[in-house]
Design goal:
GO terms for molecular function: glycosyltransferase activity. The protein is α/β, with parallel strands linked by helices and about 350 residues long. It has 14 helices and 13 strands.
Length: about 350
């Protein structure tokens, strides 16, 4: 492959899914001998270090966090110094800011980390329609999402690439603990209130629901658990360091996701790698690619029914957990890096 690889984010060092995926891919490709750069258009308010010893170069264009001023001259100068590259523009916002500044012979890849279902109810679909078709490649998280964008956004250049797992666990969950695990920021879009309601309908002692994460919704969710009569069995664990999440997956028997929208949720991928079966709302091709028991979006009684089915059957938990781990093989870092290199080779032909 000729040329460098540049990953560009609105800000590259915020604690978030796009950033984690970006640094994981950057380190992996650099480890394979590629020249890799990670560019943040703005400085993060609270920079988070994803890789202890990065093999890639890191750059920040604007020194002001959340600045409305985008320094085009500085960005254009950096990209010119890097030279011809595969430029991975990680969001619609980055595409609109950088696509006109890319040097000649640079191949532009527009990446989208959400689902088609989410894009169509916000401004993203319009932006993707206007800009992604002019890029060399448009990359989505699942084959189904790539097809939907090709059909409904009239894109001739779609490709599907899943996000990678950072590592692969040797141990598998025993699936014997009476514990359902939910993980994510306690914010409105995650709709943990629906998960609490489904858990209340589906469960009886000794089953507990452990929520990993913090956020502004915690007081309301505690009150909701009380109203649903399960305050003594919904455990708010707060934020857990990424390095300690393996213990959480191994100590649970089911992972549940109740979000209004997701692309390819990391918590389901990591849980699957640990052999943990999942219950989720059917909100994207990415969620469907992981498997598990799916309920119609927003249908709390159906989510409760799926939870109850797994709570009542250790055999079903083991069957679905084994299937989940087999599916998660596709998200291991090395196969995903192979697919990125296949994309680069395809674009060079």
């Amino acid at each position: 492959m000729s040329g460098a690889v540049v990953f560009a984010c609105m800000d590259a060092d915020t604690l978030g899914g796009i950033q984690q995926v970006t640094h994981t891919l950057a380190q992996g490709l650099a480890g394979r001998g590629h020249e890799v750069h990670v560019v943040g258009l703005h400085r993060a308010e609270k920079p988070f270090r994803y890789v202890a010893r990065p093999l890639y170069a890191r750059h920040v264009i604007s020194r002001s966090p959340r600045s409305s001023v985008f320094e085009k001259g500085r960005a254009g100068g950096l990209l010119a110094r890097i030279g011809p590259a595969f430029a991975v523009l990680t969001s619609p916002g980055v595409v609109t800011r950088l696509s006109g500044l890319l040097p000649e012979r640079t191949r532009a890849i527009g990446q989208y980390h959400g689902s088609y279902q989410h894009a169509r109810i916000c401004s993203h679909l319009g932006s993707i329609r206007r800009h992604y078709g002019d890029l060399d490649q448009a990359v989505f998280l699942s084959e189904q999402d790539a097809w939907l964008f090709a059909e409904h956004a009239l894109l001739p250049n779609t490709w599907s690439l899943p996000n990678p797992l950072q590592g692969w666990p040797a141990a598998r969950a025993e699936l014997s603990a009476a514990r359902v695990l939910g993980a994510g920021r306690l914010a409105g879009v995650k709709r943990f209130d629906r998960l609490i309601s489904a858990f209340a309908k589906a469960s009886a002692p000794p089953w507990e629901l452990h929520l990993i994460g913090d956020g502004p919704e915690e007081p309301r969710l505690r009150a909701w658990a009380t109203q649903e009569g399960v305050a003594d069995r919904v455990v708010f664990r707060g934020r857990v360091d990424a390095g300690a999440m393996e213990r959480e997956y191994l100590g649970a028997s089911i992972v549940a996701l109740s979000s209004e929208h997701e692309g390819l949720p990391l918590v389901l991928m990591e849980a699957a790698a640990h052999g943990l079966p999942s219950v989720a709302f059917d909100v994207s091709g990415g969620v469907r690619s992981i498997g598990g028991l799916l309920a119609p979006p927003g249908d709390v009684p159906a989510l409760a029914e799926r939870l109850a089915a797994l709570m009542e059957s250790a055999g079903e938990r083991r069957r679905l957990g084994a299937a989940a781990r087999a599916r998660a093989e596709a998200f291991r870092l090395e196969p995903v890096l192979d697919r990125w290199e296949e994309l680069f080779a395809h674009m060079e032909r």
